[in-house]
Amino acid sequence: MKVLVTGAAGFIGAALTQRLLAQGHEVFGLDNLNDYYEVSLKQARLKRCQAITTGRFVFEQLDLADRAGMEKLFRDNQFDAVVNLAAQAGVRYSLDNPQAYIDSNLVGFANILEGCRHAKIKNLIFASSSSVYGANSQQPFAEHHHADHPVSLYGATKRANELLAHSYASLYQLPCTGLRFFTVYGPWGRPDMAIFKFTRAIAAGEQIDVYNQGEMWRDFTYIDDIIDSMMPLLEQPASPSAAWSSDAPNPASSYAPYRVYNIGNENPVNLLEFIKILEKNIGKTAQKNFLPMQPGDVLSTHADVSNLMDATGVKPHVSIEQGVQAFVAWYQQYYAKTPCLVS
Q: What are residue 30's DSSP bridge partners?
């Protein structure tokens, strides 16, 4: 199978690329290598991909918003499947730089859909987010819940991706599967994520900002569990649901070849408990700076992953204790020779 993976230098994209290559597939990796966080980490992830094989991994630096470049990419290649993981990530950054989200998450995703349509791609899998649930307080979050009140621009762009994908599934019979990721973490993760920032600060003896007095919960999902769940979906393009009814429309499925799945751990962890686990693994006590809730944030995320488990047979199994231990061990090794641990 030849798979286009966008965001191939990113956290999830690189992990998926490595798994695909290890299983003998061809991967065309795409990334714009922007400087939202340290480019050296992205380059290091790519080197790990390139080390797995010669000939089955091709990388191109290209921005999804480059319409001409994307048209040429699909014109010059024949892909069996497309996994779109490229996006401007981060809830809080969307408050400061909304245009980046419009360009990458909306214009860029539209270019992906157009490329897939004209190339008659048989399976498009794209990244959505738990952020789409927004103001919904009914938990655990389930795909059949309505997700029409996002509280961040990031969440709004991801919900827009789902709606755009459904229109293409309906109009052009393009099989589209959206994955609502829940707080993905692990080795080689993103420096803007809480586990990364907390580890850096605790190790350096600096304060960490703890919002809402620590009364927050997150459904932390380890990277290996994410990839384990994604792999079967590459062999299972979305198909129309015979049970779907326009009288009681289920947002998770459709009369068109379209599906949306939560991809999480099912076990929310309190923020203060999460910090304690970090302290244990780092061997230092955190200096906490308690702050009120931030705009765009939500109190809790909790994924119902029963639909994904039914579809793939995969159940998340890495505990928060195991995952944090693996992340801290990687972090300490990766930055062992770097005087300034991370910018």
A: 6, 60
